[in-house]
Specification:
66% of the residues lie in helices and 7% in strands. By secondary structure, it is mostly helical. Among the domains are: 90 residues, no CATH class; 55 residues.
Length: 276
């Protein structure tokens, strides 16, 4: 029963105000009057329920070196329908198969670039740099130490260009020296002149021999003509003697000759007797 006097009664966070008129007025109490311990307990429970849901929103990351966990203490294998590690070997095998093949192709291309002329290399080394950056993880450090300096060759472009120009200038200077230095040519000229003198002397001697031969041939012709004339005379005399011969036997001819010989012998003996 409500008393006639003013009385305030608090029920479940509601305050009733009894007035003298007998009416009951309900007044809503501020939220600060709620039980703080109860509110804190409810908030803790809500946070606990929300924590796993929030953590499941994070991306799933797999690693062969670390267990696949959710937050701390949550193993993804309990949430998945398959073993995450079961797909790792296949992916690793594919990577191992494709990796060396691609690296080998790039190494072959790098070899072709390094085989080009130095003039081409110093013009642009960006392609070589790009290849080395791609295959660097697959190369031993000792090889990298020898390959990476090639990237800096473009810095020597001006020096290489200057060196080539100097080479061309040296070649031109050598040609100029060869044109202006006539010592070798002068010595060769003197040798040729000496050879010419020797040849001229041989020609002079040869001409003299030719003249002697010509004179000898001329004299031979003259002698031949004289012999021919003498031969003709002898033939004429023989013909005349032939006409004077008496025809007969050989014995007659021998007797004729013997008679003539006796005359010769008589004359010879007379001369010898006189000389004694």
């Amino acid at each position: 029963m409500a008393e006639s006097s003013n009385a305030n009664t608090t029920v479940s966070g509601l305050k009733t105000d009894d007035t003298s008129s007998g009416e009951v007025e309900e007044v809503v109490m501020p939220s600060t009057t709620l039980d703080l311990a109860t509110s804190k307990s409810v908030a803790d429970k809500a946070a606990t329920l929300a924590k796993p849901l929030a953590e499941t929103q994070e991306p799933i990351a797999s690693s062969s070196a670390a267990p696949m966990v959710l937050g701390e203490g949550y193993d993804l294998s309990s949430l998945l329908t398959f073993d995450p590690e079961s797909i790792e070997p296949a992916a690793s095998k594919a990577s191992e198969e494709s990796g060396p093949s691609a690296t080998h192709g790039q190494l072959q291309h790098l070899k072709a670039l390094l085989s080009s002329s130095i003039e081409t290399l110093v013009e642009d080394t960006e392609e070589i740099k790009s290849i080395l950056e791609d295959i660097q993880p697959h190369l031993p450090v000792t090889l990298q130490v020898k390959l990476w300096p090639v990237v800096t060759l473009s810095a020597y472009r001006s020096r290489v260009t200057l060196a080539h120009k100097c080479q061309r200038l040296n070649e031109k200077k050598a040609s100029l020296d060869a044109k202006t230095d006539t010592s070798v040519s002068t010595a060769e000229l003197e040798t040729l002149r000496k050879e010419l003198e020797d040849l001229e002397e041989r020609v002079r001697v040869t001409k003299h021999l030719i003249q002697n031969k010509e004179a000898l041939i001329a004299r031979s012709h003259e002698e031949a003509e004289g012999l021919k004339a003498g031969l003709k005379t002898d033939l004429a005399e023989i013909c005349a003697l032939n006409k004077q011969l008496v025809t007969g036997q050989d014995e007659d001819d021998e007797a004729e000759i013997a008679e003539v010989d006796r005359v010769r012998a008589t004359a010879l003996r007379a001369l010898e007797a006189f000389l004694q």
